[in-house]
Every structure is written in C-alpha cells, then in structure tokens.
Amino acid sequence: MKIRNLLVLACVLFTTFSVSGQTEKRNFLTYDFGGAITSGGGITASGLDLSLGYTTYINNSRIFFNPNIIVGAFAADGGFDLRPNYYNTLSVRAQFGYDLLQYKGFSLDLQAGLVVGTARGMIGTGGEFNSTASERIKEWNYGAVAASALKFSIPESRFSIRVVPMSVHIGPNYYLELHSLVGIAVSL
C-alpha cells in the first residue's frame, strides 16, 4: 500500500515538474516494462520490472539527465542449493546519458549513474527439505548503473518507442541486477 502511494506521488511530482519547466520538446516521461535477474545478500531470482522516469536534455546538447523509479517483483523456486524466495524491490536511479548516435527518428544512447534500492520479502516459504523456518528479507542496496537504450520516434507524434537491451546495477555485497526493458517515451 505504501509503495503504491509513493508511486502515485512520484508520478504527480515528475509530471508537475516537467510541465512547468519545459521550453522545448526535449523533455520526456518514460514508462518501461520488462524482465530482470537479481542477485545479492545470498538470494538470486528473476522477475518483472516496471519503471517510471523523466528525461530532460541539458542546454540543447546530446547530454541528458534521467532519474527514474523501478518497482520489481522477483521469485525463485530454489533448486538443489537455493531456498525458495519471493520479494519485491523499489529502486531509485539517477543517470546521465549521451546520445551516441542520432539519425532521423532513431537514437542510440549510453547512460551511467547511481542507484539506491530496497528489497523486502521472504526466503524459505515452505516445501524445503530439512528446513522449518522462513526468513524475512529486508535489505538496502546501492551501487552504479550502466545502460544503453534505443529510441524510435513515431513521426508526427509525441510518442517514441524505447528499448533498453541491458541495464546493469552493480554494488557492494555481491549486489547485481540485470534489466531488459521495453516502453514508451512521451514528449512534453
């Protein structure tokens, strides 16, 4: 419930900020959905991600700033050496990017930045051999982000299609997340 309220508040703040400060169509709201693999703190799982972000170009250049929020739901059935686990993540990323290649309605960019996030859930949810107790997951992660993205602008439209083939989060305590996302960017 608290996460949903936080996301609604973030949507309102990002929308208000972007509309009030725009002078050109160099500002975008981004909505992405995709899959991810995460590892850290003794847990490894795969799941789905939903991302909401804001992109603004700096001084009519190819450099842009892209803060975003990612919510993820992860699960792993265990296997021979891992206990089953189910958990949710909430991460905030702040990235700077550079449009490496631009041609008509197509662009390829590279991004780098920082990420801070939390994971909450359970390890050992029943059905394991030789185990009777579950453990709660409650951890904070932080680290660096590196990503690349492709953007295809739709002619005569405010919408663009975004493809993020790989976004990597890496940090201390074996924190690693790999994301692949597809979404839209809406010009403001």
Largest sheet: 8 strands, antiparallel, barrel
- End-to-end CA span: 29 Å
Rounded mean pLDDT score? 82
Would you identify the regions where 5 or more consecutive residues have pLDDT less than 50? Answer: 11-24
CATH class: Mainly Beta
What does this structure look like?
The structure is a single chain. The protein is mainly β and 188 residues long. It has a single domain, classed as Porin, CATH 2.40.160. It is 11% helix and 66% strand. It is built from 1 helix and 8 strands, in the order H-E-E-E-E-E-E-E-E. The protein has one helix at residues 2-21; strands spanning 27-40, 43-57, 63-76, 85-103, 106-123, 135-153, 159-171, 175-187. An 8-stranded antiparallel beta barrel has the order 1-2-3-4-5-6-7-8. 26% of the residues are buried. The model is unreliable at 11-24 (pLDDT under 50).
